[in-house]
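Appendix B, example 12.
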Amino acid sequence: MPVAGPAEVLIASNRGPVSFAINEQGALSLRRGGGGLVSGLSAVAGETGETGLWICTALTDADRTATRRAGGGRLDEAGHDTGGAAVRMLDIDATTFNRAYNAVANSVLWFVHHLLYDIPTVPHFDASFRRDWDSYVAYNAAFADAIATDAAPGATVLVQDYHLTLVPRLLRERRPDLRVGHFSHTPWAPADYFDLLPDEVAREVLLGVLGADRAAFLTIRWARAFLACCARVLHLDVDYQALTVAHDGRVTAVGVHALGVDGDYLRARSRQPDVEAKRATLLETVGACRVVLRVDRTELSKNIVRGLAAYRELLRTRPEWRGKVVHVAFAYPSRHDLPEYR
């Protein structure tokens, strides 16, 4: 068992609360990490103080540079503004990360959980996927090793999302004293769709999450889908009323928890001069019209194209709204490394 560290509450996620850019002179600049997960957890991380630690990984070359310049990847101790959170950024081999993140997490697990596959033609699971899956295992093991080293005896570990499904089980092997939760920020696929995964992969994903004391989801529908997968793939004793799974001599509780936003941060941000300027520009552009606003990543599951079609249908079927309503769609680039998103 690794020597215990000082952290009593640990968050583990692929993306951390900050990210970096680097200029031609090698100077780093920091910005707040993107995505709903970061928005939802930043306030919690900031409140843990000296007893908390957020473990994430470097996503870009600039992140890796920042990590290597910081002793042990501790960004806060290197003087970076991490919003009050103690942050350790891992320097995982770039090839291992790319295969784990792009080839498995985003190209397979995301597609399965969002039911995005064109079933007659994809997915294909060949020798290259086996290689990619091995990288996903190594990537999860790197997180488990870091957590096992940094966690105090009996610490609480909050593992986040589909990138890190194997971590709870790996942690149980390394540090059985820890209290571990896993939270899925995405849907969970119905059992018949989850069956698209290779048998071994499906088993490893489920057993990985079941290493947690509590597995949590955003909705009861997705929690029950997870239970159904455990029953179908692992043939485990599942209680759909109590939301529990019995396995390996223990019981994993399944919870349903909404995830809010950092209201204090958003209110303060709304009063900043740059936001006020953009608000004024928007109001000048739309005039007296009503506004239908959406903000999304350019993500297949966000139904951006259908949203535009729905707005067109509104104007076609409700002509009285023509000239009185404006649809403002902010769609920011996402996952251009994947061919499906280009």
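The CA atoms of residues 43 and 262 lie 6 Å apart. The longest strand covers residues 151-160.
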